[in-house]
Design a protein that fits this description.
The protein is α+β, with helices and mostly antiparallel strands. Helices cover about 40% and strands about 30% of the residues. The chain has one domain: minor pseudopilin epsh domain (minor pseudopilin epsh fold), CATH 3.55.40.10. It is built from one helix and nine strands; from the N terminus they run H-E-E-E-E-E-E-E-E-E. Strands 3-2-1-5-6 form a five-stranded antiparallel β-sheet, with helices on one face. It has a four-stranded antiparallel β-sheet with strand order 4-7-8-9, covered by helices on one side. The longest helix is centred in the first third of the chain and has 52 residues. The radius of gyration is 23 Å and the shape is rod-shaped.
Length: about 140
Amino acid sequence: MPRGTTLLELLLVVSCITLLTLIAAPRVSGILGDLALRQEAATLVGALDQARLAAIQRSDVATLTLSGSSYRVSVDTVVIWQHAGPATRGMMLSGAGAPIQFGAAGVAIGVANRTFTLARGARSRRVVMSRLGRITP
């Protein structure tokens, strides 16, 4: 009895593996896209928390400036915290608008609810911040 595989058997196995890979690839990339958006939403929530914490710790007004290229927390003109923005990771941020200011009590000044939308391709994720500090990622 001969041992080994024929070329036909090998081609059949390779074509089956290729077919399964083509079917699974879009799902895997979708899952990775969702994970990246979830991570960026967590970074945005962290920036909001950093600004609130800086205002409380320093008993002064802290300003959070959000843009596609960076998230920046400053008190007066001193930058306390900075992080790369979503554009550096291939995402878009909308709803950032004017800088957000937090008073010494940690409450946003002059802002009602604010909705931020992070988007990557066809997928998006919203982060909602209320004036009193509740954040819904």
